[in-house]
Amino acid sequence: KAGVTQTPRYLIKTRGQQVTLSCSPISGHRSVSWYQQTPGQGLQFLFEYFSETQRNKGNFPGRFSGRQFSNSRSEMNVSTLELGDSALYLCASSAGTGYGYTFGSGTRLTVV
Amino acid sequence: GIQVEQSPPDLILQEGANSTLRCNFSDSVNNLQWFHQNPWGQLINLFYIPSGTKQNGRLSATTVATERYSLLYISSSQTTDSGVYFCAGGAGGGADGLTFGKGTHLIIQP
Questions:
Q1: In angstroms, rounded to a whole number, what is the distance separating the alpha carbons of residues A104 and A96?
Q2: pLDDT of A60 strictly over 80
Q3: Do B99 and A98 make contact, defined as CB atoms within 8 angstroms?
């Protein structure tokens, strides 16, 4: 079956702009979570959605937001981009409690 | 929050060698997982192992939940094993998200 699909793979944005990243989970998986990876901070949890509800959010400013649709696809949005938002953004899906996470290939965002 | 410590941070081995990677948690976790990140950034799930021992080919993992640590064993290393190995876990069933360690950077030389 198809894996976790993230689009786009690469993105270059200018400071102050906003960006929307998309994630399609494995068919049947209702849990989708997002992570930011930077050389300095490593992998950090952004938020997790289950059946269209955000169940938890990591320690990130309000500029970072997300949502999940009824088909389990998820989007995350970053508004008013800053240079420090340059990172690899990874999405993971899971069948639920007691199951491992499957990650997508990520979206590499560069803010200039 | 939960702290995850991985050791060693870097490891250089010759092809065919065996290795053991360790992961310590500051508190109990119930969804401990091991991942391998390849040079292109793809995170591959190796094991979902909240407790006990699992094996998959040349890789095996053991988690001692009561002592809050996990070990990843790689036997007969191949150059394709190179990359960064992460362990991660969370306190909740999934809603809390995963806390990742800083990883072990493994280089297998031919």
A1: 17
A2: yes
A3: no
